[in-house]
Amino acid sequence: REGMTLVPLKIYFNDQGRAKLLLAVGRGKKLHDKRETEKQRDWSREKGRLLKERG
Fold first, then answer.
1. Alpha-carbon radius of gyration of the chain
2. SS3 state of residue 34
3. Which residue ranges make up each domain of the chain?
4. Tens digits of per-residue pLDDT, 28-37?
5. Taking the model in full, what pTM does it have?
């Protein structure tokens, strides 16, 4: 489907040597979710820089 993604969760081999996958279907983030994630990532980086300067 459009806008959906198959995500492999687990890969394993059966007795005959065939690979099996456990799949999940995921949907992408909305715009506000992306912004929130980006804010958290930026804050983590900034916090690391501040601690590195002081430490």
1. 19
2. helix
3. 4-54
4. 888 888 899 9
5. 0.47
